[in-house]
Amino acid sequence: MCDSLKLSRDIMLIPRAEQLTLVALPNAVRIGRAYCKATLTGWGYRDDDFVADAELVVSELVTNAVNAVGPERGSHDGVRWGELLDHSTLIRLFLVDTRRALFVEVWDSDPRLPQPSAEGAQFDAESGRGLGIVAALSRHWGYRRPYDANGRRNGKVVFAELPLPTSTTSTTSTTGAAWRPPPP
Ligand SMILES: Nc1ncnc2c1ncn2[C@@H]1O[C@H](COP(=O)(O)OP(=O)(O)OP(=O)(O)O)[C@@H](O)[C@H]1O
Ligand SMILES: [Mg+2]
User: Fold this and answer.
1) Angle, alpha carbons 147-148-150 (nearest 5°)
2) Pocket of ligand 1, candidates 59, 104, 115: which has the most ligand atoms within 8 Å of its Cβ, to mutate?
3) pLDDT of 159
4) Nearest CA among 90, 56, 57 for reference residue 71
5) What is the pLDDT of residues 78-112, one digit of tens each?
6) What pTM was computed for the model?
7) How far is the centre of ligand 2, averaged over its atoms, from the C-alpha of 106 (Å)?
8) Per-residue confidence at 181, pLDDT binned at 50, 70, 90?
9) Alpha-carbon distance values, 131 to 8, 91, 115, 148 (Å)
10) Nearest-CA neighbor of 16 among 177, 180, 178?
11) Which of 21, 23, 30, 179 fits as disulfide partner to 38, beta carbons 3.0 to 4.6 Å?
């Protein structure tokens, strides 16, 4: 095999990752979705169903994080905006392509853990469906409790592992997507 062919084959085996820090406000969900779509498209994924599934998982996990650490719904008027940049009200979205699976991971500072509905929420339920959707779209999902630099537990990461599309739809692009935040 010629060197350039071997090099491009090897590049396609290298894991790649992107991350975005979000402020825990409702528009974090829309920004997270747009970032996910731009990243996967920038990585060369052209399968619309795969990208839509990943966006939906991002949407559910970021929504849960906003609910956990964001200001009370409808009370933004009383929020001091500087406080929103406090570590505890930030959310981090990670997209990791191991080349065998896509991991969507969302960190928030709340120590409370996800509580999936025991029997699975009804389709027409008004709440309790999000983690069921994540479970349905992923190979598996879960959470872990990371440590900070001082050895203390620091919130949690909720993650979902999505299967990659079966067709060879990924290019060798290793650069990040040319992402821009959507207009307000
Ligand atoms: N990041 C999180 N931090 C703290 N608690 C969480 C988090 N994610 C989920 N939970 C808990 O798990 C429960 C179930 O989450 P799930 O997403 O399935 O339903 P929901 O958010 O209550 O409603 P829906 O997603 O249908 O609007 C939540 O009500 C919440 O108590
Ligand atoms: Mg939810």
Assistant:
1) 110
2) 115
3) 98
4) 90
5) 556 666 667 678 999 999 999 999 999 999 999 99
6) 0.85
7) 13
8) low
9) 38, 18, 8, 26
10) 177
11) 179
Q: Is 170 in the pocket of ligand 1 (CB under 6 A)?
A: no
Question: Whose structure tokens read 């906003």?
Answer: 66
Looking from the CA of residue 129, the nearest atom of ligand 1 is: 26
Range 123-149 average pLDDT? 91
Are the C-beta atoms of residues 45 and 113 closer than 8 Å to each other?
no
Q: Quick check: CB of 128 below 6 Å from ligand 1?
A: yes
What is the domain extent for residue 106?
14-163
For 31, residues 6+ apart whose C-beta sits below 8 A from its C-beta are: 20, 22, 181, 182
Supply the CATH number for residue 82's domain: 3.30.565.10
**Ligand in nearest proximity to the CA of 117:** 1
Residue 169 lies in a domain: no
- On whether residue 181 sits in a domain, the answer given is no
| Inside any domain, residue 42 | yes
CA 115, CA 9: separation in Å to the nearest integer?
42
Q: Tell me if 179 is assigned to some domain.
A: no
Residue 164: predicted pLDDT: 97
